[in-house]
Write a structure and sequence with these properties.
Number of helices: 1
Distance between the termini: 42 Å
Radius of gyration: 30 Å
Order of helices and strands: HEEEEEEEEEEEEEEEEEEEEEEEEEE
Length: about 375
């Protein structure tokens, strides 16, 4: 097939429903964003219409739990997967729909059922022309971990999975897992969890990562980068006063040199530290991040021999990378006057936001305080 003629809504034209689906529905919906869809250019990202608290077509337990689930009212757009290029269907549910879950198996029988919105079109497959909300029953397995979702109809959107354990007589909220995709019109902001982020969004596609509260967008080179930096964008922290620590080797975050970082982000790290210590106390320094953060740093500063000797202090420069995940400290020397330390590194966060901080202590417990001076600073630059 080539040009689809006549174009939709041409005066005195006559055309198939497929033309309306392609022109009035699919043309206005966003691109799916996955490699598998590249070979079928007329594909769309199917899914549910997003709403406040994402209540549309949500599967939930009955108010008094029993062997049913209730699917809320809402809209879904579902692509025809029987034949490529046949367009998407608009599916509307205008009231709560109660669906029955088949009785549970006996002891040792676990299964996982799927709640779906399915489209059946006799033009492309079968003899039925309708859409329906339905439960597709899974097969039994010997353990909950071995239970898998059943095979689904070709043209459907999964809404939820339901874990049906042996001998249960009611379905509670705890066994229902929301599995809805959301879709928006082309150019709209797509709500999607980071874990389900499209790998190939179109250039300029803006996405809101619902599980990490972050906006990203697709670039022409295929990468995905943060859009609105805001909180967690990095920044600059300066010490407004001296901090003294004596008789301690416990690494602790500096009270001034901390900056908030966001989830799933990459930062370059720079710090300029001014400190003073005795020749015995010296200073230990490190960079820390939130849970699951990774990265490394190195620094140029006044070396410290072990044991410290006047003859060799000042000759060592530590440039080997130090691990952020384990808050790996390094020791730098002191000689009772102010010294400087220049730190550089990289920090990559995972699913936990928090603080990046300069950690420090004395290298050897000494009654003469080690002092981190005012005007020391930390700077983070978010790069991805």
């Amino acid at each position: 097939m080539a040009e689809v003629n006549p174009p939709a809504w041409m005066q005195a034209g006559s055309y198939a429903a497929r033309t309306d689906r392609l022109g009035a529905i699919s043309a206005g919906l966003c691109y799916p964003g996955f490699l598998a869809d590249e070979s079928t250019p007329l594909r769309i990202r199917q899914g549910v219409k997003p709403s406040y608290q994402n209540y549309q077509l949500k599967a939930r337990a009955a108010a008094t739990p029993n062997m049913t689930v209730t699917v809320s009212a809402g809209y879904a757009w579902i692509d025809n997967h029987d034949v490529g290029g046949y367009g998407a269907y608009t599916c509307v549910n205008d009231a709560d729909k109660i669906l029955t879950i088949a009785p549970a198996g006996a002891a040792g029988q676990y299964r996982k059922d799927a709640v779906v919105a399915s489209v059946y079109d006799a033009e492309t497959s079968g003899s039925v022309s309708e859409w329906r909300l339905e439960v597709i029953q899974g097969t039994y397995a010997a353990s909950a971990g071995a239970a898998v979702l059943p095979s689904l109809p070709a043209s459907c959107q999964i809404l939820a999975s339901v874990a049906v354990n042996p001998s249960v007589t009611s379905i509670t909220a705890g066994v229902i897992t929301d599995m809805r995709n959301y879709t928006v019109s082309a150019g709209g902001v797509l709500p999607v969890p980071y874990t389900l982020l499209p790998t190939r969004p179109h250039p300029g596609q803006v996405m809101y990562l619902t599980d990490v509260d972050q906006f990203v967008y697709g670039k022409a080179d295929g990468t995905i980068v943060p859009l609105a930096l805001g909180s967690g964008s990095g920044g600059f922290a300066r010490k407004s006063a001296d901090t003294s620590r004596s008789s301690t080797v416990t690494m602790t975050a500096d009270p001034h040199l901390t900056i908030s970082v966001a989830t799933y982000s990459t930062y370059t790290v720079d710090a300029y530290l001014i400190y003073q210590s005795s020749t015995a106390g010296d200073v230990n320094v490190a960079i820390s991040g939130p849970t699951s953060a990774e990265g490394s740093w190195s620094a140029v500063g006044y070396g410290r021999s072990v044991p410290a000797t006047v003859a060799t202090d000042g000759w060592t420069v530590r440039m080997n990378p130090n691990n952020i995940a384990s808050v790996q400290p390094r020791t730098y020397g002191g000689d009772t006057v102010d010294e400087t330390l220049h730190m550089r590194g990289i920090l990559r966060t995972a699913g936990t936001a928090g603080q990046c901080a300069v950690q420090w202590s004395q290298a050897a417990s000494d009654a003469t305080a080690t002092i981190m001076r005012a005007d020391s600073w930390l700077r983070l630059t978010r790069v991805a």
